[in-house]
Automatic annotation (TrEMBL):
SUPFAM superfamilies: Toll/Interleukin receptor TIR domain. It comes from the Bacteria. InterPro entries: TIR_dom (IPR000157), Toll_tir_struct_dom_sf (IPR035897). It comes from Cellvibrio fibrivorans. This is TIR domain-containing protein. Residues 33-136 form the TIR domain.
């Protein structure tokens, strides 16, 4: 089984009240990673979300699939946009900030991380390919510099979910690097 994108409207997960941290079948808290990114890095965010869902069986929240949020953006309703972003963070267990050279131009990424920190979410920053220097405010949680450290971080989340929270049967099939291309080679460096 794969993780799901909790922002997709097709989910049948108690969408009326957004109590999405609980699996309907067993009542346990399944990990969910809120992916904070600047819109121009959308393709990289989608690729990472797919990897996390398919290979780690962990849920994600990727805002580009939240129809309510996209409607609020279209209507230019800042109050609604903020409330919906906060809802996505609230219903996640972790927040992962995707960092590229373009992230510095985002007003939302620092807001999302600040809100996640205040909400007690576990925070990490993931450096996308390229020569990017992380600002100090992005160094407050785990730092992920490539595919190898992403896999280690995911394994840490899974271990915690199994041991501490009693989450059964997360099906992990993370890809190790070989002579063949890794599915994230276009997004992340491998050896970091």
């Amino acid at each position: 089984m794969s993780g799901v994108n909790r922002a997709k409207p097709t989910l049948q997960l108690e969408s009326a009240n957004y109590n999405l941290n609980k699996s309907l079948s067993s009542g346990y808290e399944k990990p969910c990673i809120f992916l904070s990114h600047i819109y121009v890095d959308k393709k990289d965010a989608e690729q990472l979300a797919d990897y996390i869902m398919e290979k780690a069986d962990i849920d994600v929240y990727l805002d580009i699939y939240d129809q309510d949020l996209q409607n609020a953006v279209t209507l230019k309703d800042p109050s609604k946009i903020t409330a919906l972003i906060e809802r996505g963070i609230t219903n996640s267990t972790h927040a992962m900030c995707l960092i590229s050279e373009k992230t510095i131009n985002s007003w939302w990424v620092p807001y999302e991380l600040g809100y996640a920190k205040k909400a007690g979410k576990k925070i990490c920053s993931l450096k996308l390919k390229g020569n990017v220097e992380l600002p100090d405010f992005l160094k407050i949680g785990d730092l992920i510099y490539g595919t190898k450290s992403l896999n280690e971080y995911i394994q840490k989340i899974i271990t915690e979910a199994r041991l501490v929270k009693g989450v059964p049967n997360i099906n992990v099939s993370l890809e190790s690097h070989s002579s063949a291309n890794h599915s994230l080679d276009s997004v992340l460096d491998w050896n970091n």
